[in-house]
Amino acid sequence: MFRLLPILLFIALIFFGFNWLKRQPPGKKRRAILQALVAVSMALLIFLVITGRIHWLGAALAALIPLAKFGLGLVAQVLPFLKHRSSQSPSPAPAAMTPDEAAETLGLHQAFRDNNLNKEVVLKAHKSLMQKVHPDRGGNDYLAARVNQAKDILLKNL
């Protein structure tokens, strides 16, 4: 009978947990899941300490794991040289570009000299080049910005 009680309690907890999760607004479900996981982890650690399966110091150290993100953020504030620079950091704005450079960037230098540019030609060249240099396809932010800037300049000067 003693073993049946924790099993029934566990099943009831799962049932009420899922109902609680369903009632959460869509934007807050991820946070709710993380909170539930932390609560379950803490309850499991307390259970293991009470039953003597884990030393209380081990449980205390394990309980500090969720605080690691806060601690790492604090270390980054205290020691700014340890901050990790993300590859998604904003790239510097491209330097000013002349219409001649813009045409060369898009591969339309000869058409620009001959004054044979129109909106369709510029947009087609832009699309073709963006498919090659877009960050989602292995390019980088700087090249994509330069190509976009070249298109904007040429379209303004038509």
UniProtKB/TrEMBL annotation:
Keywords: Chaperone, Membrane, Transmembrane, Transmembrane helix. The chain crosses the membrane at residues 6-21, 33-50, 56-82. The keyword Transmembrane helix applies. InterPro entries: J_dom_sf (IPR036869). SUPFAM superfamilies: Chaperone J-domain. It is found in: Membrane. Its main location: membrane. This is Molecular chaperone DnaJ. It comes from Gilvimarinus gilvus. The lineage of its organism: Bacteria, Pseudomonadati, Pseudomonadota, Gammaproteobacteria, Cellvibrionales.
